[in-house]
Amino acid sequence: MLETTELLGQIVRLCAEQKSGTLFLTTTNNKACHIVFDEGRITAMAYGSVRGVAVADLLPRLPVQSCQFNSALRMPLSSRALLDDDGSVFDKLGLRRGAMQPVVTSSSQRIYRGHPVSVTDKAQVIADNNESKAVKPRKAKRIYRGQVIED
Questions:
Q1: Which of 30, 68, 101, 104 is 20 to 30 Å from the Cα of 132, by its Cα?
Q2: CA–CA gap between residue 52 and residue 72 (Å, rounded)
Q3: Separation of first and last alpha carbons in the chain
Q4: Domain containing residue 88
C-alpha cells in the first residue's frame, strides 16, 4: 500500500517537473482515481462519482494500492472533473505550490519496482594522482521478477 506522503510527493514532483499526462491510482478495493496534469498544472480529478476539487478532500484518506503515471495519455474526463485553478487542490491537500522544487536525481540512479538500480551509461573518468584513465561503462543489471540475475 502506498503511503499518503509518497502519493503527495509524487503529485508535487509531477507538478514541479512540468509533466503532462494522467496519474492513475488504484485503491485496495479496486477503484480507480485519475489525476490529469497539463504542463505541471492539475487540470482534472475523478474518483468514482466524485469529480473535481472534491477529490482532493478524499485523496489523503484513500487506501492507494498502486499508482502509475502515463505521460502519453491525458484521460478525457467529464466537464464536472475539470478544475479552474489547481491552487485550491494544493490548499485542500495542505501543500504550498511555491515550495515545490524539482527533484534532482542522478543520471546513474534509476528506480525499478521500488529498488534503486545503478546504471552508468557513459564512461567514467577516475582521477588518480592527476592522471585520468577511462573506465568501461558498466552494464545494467538484469532483473527478472525483482531478482538480480547474475551472468
A1: 104
A2: 22
A3: 33
A4: 4-99
Does residue 113 share a domain with residue 92?
no
88 plus 122 within the same structural domain: no
26-102-88-74 Cα dihedral, nearest 10 degrees: -50
Residues 6+ apart with CB under 8 A from 51: 45, 77, 78, 80, 81
Is 104 within a domain?
A: no
User: Do residue 95 and residue 114 come from a single domain?
Assistant: no
pTM: 0.60
Closest CA to 1 of 64, 68, 69, 62: 64
Find all residues with CB under 8 Å of 64, minimum gap 6, and list them.
Answer: 1, 2, 4, 7, 25, 26, 27, 28, 33
Cell reading at 76 = 478525457
C-alpha cell at 82: 475539470
